[in-house]
Amino acid sequence: MDDAHLPDSILIVDFGSQVTQLIARRVREAGVYSEIAPFSQAEEAFHRLKPKGVILSGSPAGVPEDGSPRAPEMLFEAGIPILGICYGQQVMSHQLGGEVRPGHETGEGGEFGRAFLTVTKDCALFDGLWQVGERHQVWMSHGDKVTKFAPGFEIVAISDGAPFAVIADEERKFYGTQFHPEVVHTPDGGKLIANFVRHVCGLAGEWTMAAYRETKVREIREQVGDGKVICGLSGGVDSSVAAILIHEAIGDKLTCVFVDHGLLRLNEREQVETMFRDHYNIPLVVVDAEDMFMSGLEGVTDPEAKRKFIGKTFIDVFEAEAKAVGGADFLAQGTLYPDVIESVSFTGGPSVTIKSHHNVGGLPERMNMQLVEPLRELFKDEVRELGRELGLPDMFVGRHPFPGPGLAIRIPGEVTKERCDILRKADAIYLDEIRKAGLYDAIWQAFAVLLPVKTVGVMGDYRTYDSVCGLRAVTSTDGMTADVYPFDAAFLTGVATRIVNEVQGINRVVYDYTSKPPGTIEWE
Ligand code: XMP
What we know:
This protein is α/β, with parallel strands linked by helices. It is built from 17 helices and 20 strands. It has helices at 20-29, 42-49, 73-76, 87-95, 103-106, 189-200, 209-224, 237-250, 268-279, 290-297, 303-324, 337-340, 363-366, 380-389, 394-397, 417-436, 489-502; strands spanning 9-14, 33-38, 53-56, 82-85, 99-101, 111-119, 135-142, 145-148, 154-159, 166-169, 174-177, 229-233, 254-260, 284-288, 330-332, 370-372, 445-459, 462-475, 483-484, 506-511. A nine-stranded mixed beta sheet has the order 2-1-3-4-11-10-9-6-7, with helices on both faces. Strand 10 (166-169) and strand 11 (174-177) form a beta hairpin. The protein binds xanthosine-5'-monophosphate. Residues 355, 357-359, 401, 403-405, 445, 479, 516, 520-522 line the site of xanthosine-5'-monophosphate.
């Protein structure tokens, strides 16, 4: 992006807090663009973004610990406002000449959870929101605390456990909160952050999806030039929104490829064809690869072997189609911001592979293509908003996530066309009932699973011996952790009755009560 097109922004320096992404959310809700950079890359991000303000995040580390992270000194000399949150407040105090001590040394311990602070002085952060003498609920989570503040600062709010609950240097426009304004348990937190970005940093709050769409269309045109782009459509929200945006930018220089691997949900292929060809008039190649996938899956029961086979075959098919349409210079992907943010680890060491996720990674190098990823800066719900902005119907925009390997990882044991057909029917009934009950949008993901277990039943005067179907429904914000959706018993009984009555091959239905962790969302 050249400077003229840089949006007014806030740089969030990440010290590894679990909730750093929430800071970005709150800033964007205030209508201001923000990006997160790990503390080690904050200086480079500062020069690239030219932000109008900086927010320093919390951290699992403690300022007094050896080797704990620091903010680049240049940020304090850049002449722009800074808000330090929790660790951010402490590290700023420390770096500017104050003192931070571990809770156990001060003899006061830490403060965790709900706390109340009292406003002792007016401050730009509180403008139009908090008055002197008022008490307000906030969310604390700290062991260490600032024991001496840096020159220039003064206390503007106190709490029982944090004498420096909020500190301010109005001259330099540096502020520090010991509590976390970004979490929902600080009820006025979003407004405090909005005050910081709007009143203190002077930003107008004009960052909207319409503006994002315009900027991206221009950027895609610049990036692609006369080249050709190919986009793998999964039918999911992310790749669909990416494709429609790119099509708006470069028209028929984009070709979409949809691989029907026979592991799709009921009518999914038809829905994608109608949407892209008829509604948006986007060049779409649909590849019927069901036989290839089904024959390759014969006898495969190990979950990782299934995933690897499907991932590899998908790339083979996609590559062949890309060549058939005359090759492409760019590959479009619906990569989202949470996939891009580098997580900051203080413990080191690689994380364990729980599942090999299937995507089209590996293709760009193999085919010598560059990536076009117009959603890289967005969170999932922002992608949905952009989808609506682009005219995608709500029904499509709000769809539950669906994994790349499709139904194969919802059929433990061997995957066959017959078992896929059975599962498709049960799944469609389950989702139909969820929609009819008005629960679809309250659930992150709901689906049926076909188990490799047969049980005895009785229907009319007949003995049956058929498969068990599992039902799963979870709530989540990012798929990383999940809670079980608490349907009432009558709802589940109704779904079970319909499935057993209407789907031949299933005679028993069970509900999965496992959260994540310890379970994963998909069964394989
Ligand atoms: P798990 O089962 O790991 O799933 O708890 C977390 C989220 O990721 C989805 N998922 C996938 N998505 N390719 C994808 O694009 C995959 O291989 C894949 N495996 C799981 C899953 O549906 C859930 O939303």
